[in-house]
Amino acid sequence: MADSTRHQIMDAVIAALEGITEVNGYETTVKTVSENLRHWEEMDFNEFPACFPIDADEIKEARTIGAMLGRLTVIVTCMVQAHDNVTRQARTDLIRDVEKAIVTNSTLAGLDLLTMPRRVVTDKGNIPNYSVWDQEFEIAYPYARDTGG
Predict the structure, then answer these.
(1) Could you give the CA distance from residue 135 to residue 22 in angstroms, rounded to a whole number?
(2) What is the pLDDT of residues 42-70, one digit of tens each?
């Protein structure tokens, strides 16, 4: 059986995040991409910046008779660190790079999807030498109810 659209979306998101490198035209080179969220204190300095994507809530709704739309929320928890406690530039660069990588991803576009950045929720600068935030995206796709995805 073919992977569900939800599974294909997450594969594409992970590949997009893994492609964030300076060589590929981004401001940042992401060192760690994983679906297994880790606490920033458990990571080595050489593992930053890091991105942890998760497929979160999903809504399915009827659009017309026989046609349905799925809307999947994808949350990417991102982390940067700086020894001098100035993480603003690194945070800003990675926020922009993650959005660019996901919104312009050709695999997601090929799945007939609409990808919309929704919000960024930061740690408000409460962690010395680190910045941790969530970037939320909504990805809409034609839902095939006969296959469950």
Answers:
(1) 20
(2) 999 999 999 999 999 988 887 776 678 88
What CATH number is given to the structural domain containing 104? 3.30.70.1700
Residue 132 confidence (pLDDT) above 90:
yes
Residue 43 per-residue DSSP state: S
Number of separate domains in the chain: 1
Angle, to 10 degrees, between the axis of helix 88-103 and the axis of helix 5-18?
140
Q: What is the DSSP string of 9-40?
A: HHHHHHHHHHT--GGGT-S----EE-SS---G
3-state SS assignment for residue 107: helix
The pTM is what?
0.90
**Amino acid at position 56, single letter:** A
